[in-house]
Amino acid sequence: MALLNDEIKNEIREALGDLPNPVRLVMFTQEFECQFCKETRQLATEVGELSDQITVEVQNFVTDKDKAEELAVDKIPAIAVLGEKDYGIRLYGIPSGYEFSSLIESIRLVSAGVPDLTEDGLEFAQAIQDPVHIQVFVTPTCPYCPRAVILGFNLAMANDLVTADMVEATEFPHLAQKYQVMGVPRSVINEAFHIEGAAPEPMVLDKIREALAIEGE
Predict the structure, then answer these.
(1) Which residues contact 19 (CB under 8 A, 6 or more apart)?
(2) Helix axes 201-215, 145-158, angle to 10 degrees
(3) pLDDT at 54 over 70
(4) pLDDT of 114 over the 80 cut
(5) Strand 23-29, strand 78-82: pairing
(6) Which among 125, 95, 75, 74 is positioned nearest to 25, based on CA atoms?
């Protein structure tokens, strides 16, 4: 049974109808599929069928270990969104509910290959000289979460040293506990720095600046 009905498929076709460049969705699962692995695989496949510019590759997290390591995928279900290069954009957990828009927008971003940031944001992001890992914890019912996720993805696109993950909190409770996720969105920068809510771009940049300054001491 299809996950996407005809109305949603038509909306997606319209949203993805002008993709300028090819996009690869590399989805990781395993033989004995995890919770929501099957649905995530099916969702990626159905989206891929709606545009000639999208290809979907399904990899086994266990037997294709080298591929997982190459793409730095450390948990499943996972979708790596790749364009002409790997921008470090990952979705962990099924991108359902409001997070479905994060999947669609990530495809559009990667296809365009141009980050959507303010002039100051782009200048700051491109000047980053140390690794920055952004994890945005979300739930499918959170209407504010995609904004935080897409900002992280845009920052990742601006600099190869920046990577950004969407992490569905209820599917990875050990991580939600580790990072004290009491509400979403909660963005975690380099393991130790946190932002609550869908913070505006300047606030996120300030937090990254703080993280890099402290780590550089």
Answers:
(1) 51, 53, 54, 107, 108, 111
(2) 60
(3) yes
(4) yes
(5) antiparallel
(6) 95
